[in-house]
Specification:
8 helices; alpha/beta; Dihydrofolate Reductase, subunit A
Length: about 250
């Protein structure tokens, strides 16, 4: 650029920079911050519930929305959930409804409560699982899970005695993980948002009302609207009977 200018050629920079960066937002974020690009995704009822009061969540969204969710999985290097989601729903967290690669399955399990028969601990040849905990190798539960061939990493605890999510993201980044899809549950989603670790939020809203139930996002300890998390809607789309809102944090 300097050479062109020295030859009397007018040079303009930053032309459509925002649009160009959005085409490869994951790469730029990963290279500039040293952290994975984090997408939070959840499906909720019209009145903001991801499950009934007794924990039933299958299926809030439609088949079209679930297909879209599997496409999101295929587009990320890793998918992250909490132990309670594994215990409650026993998901596989693989790509099935579309063609694509399986992401690394990361489970945040501070107390190593995951039962051995959990689907996420099976079929490691097609989809690897990594468990993040605050427990150390001398813990009996650590040995129980490690004996099945699952990789477990010990991460420092945060102020609440849980896995420090930012430190976990740094570990994943060092392993070449440039993007993480957070699928729940509410506790993990809340922690990610509370600690300002999310870059993108995808909400699927189903035309259903159930009243009392489990909220998608818990207490962020915001009592003044001026401190509300600000997002920018990037895309709104119909997925069968559902509505998908794709947004970015600003």
């Amino acid at each position: 650029m300097n050479y062109l200018q020295s030859q009397g050629i007018e040079v303009k920079t930053g032309v459509l920079e925002k649009e160009c960066r959005s085409l490869n937002e994951i790469f730029f974020h990963y290279m500039e911050t040293g952290l994975p690009f984090v997408t939070v995704k959840y499906a909720q009822t019209f009145d903001g519930r991801i499950a009934t009061a007794n924990g039933q969540s299958q299926w809030i969204s439609s088949e079209a929305a679930r297909k879209f969710a599997h496409q999101l999985r295929a587009e990320h290097d890793a998918i992250l959930v909490g132990a309670q989601t594994v215990i409650q729903d026993n998901p596989e967290l693989t790509v099935r409804h579309v063609r694509g690669r399986n992401p690394l399955r990361v489970v945040v399990d501070s107390g190593l409560r995951i039962p051995s028969p959990a689907k996420i601990l099976q079929n490691q040849s097609s989809a690897k699982t990594l468990i993040a905990t605050i427990k150390t190798a001398d813990d009996p539960q650590f040995s129980r899970i490690a004996a099945s061939g699952i990789e477990i990493i010990t991460v420092d605890a945060d102020n609440q005695g849980k896995v420090d999510l930012k430190k976990l993201l740094k570990i994943l980044s060092a392993r070449g993980i440039s993007s993480v899809l957070v699928e729940g549950g509410a506790q993990i989603i809340t922690s990610v948002l509370k600690n300002d670790l999310a870059d993108r939020l995808v909400a699927i809203i189903a035309p259903k009302i159930i009243g009392k139930g489990i909220e998608a996002i818990g207490d962020l300890q915001i009592s003044d609207l001026k401190y509300a998390k600000q997002i920018s809607f990037q895309k709104i789309k119909r997925l069968g009977p559902d509505i998908m809102i794709d947004s970015r944090f600003v």
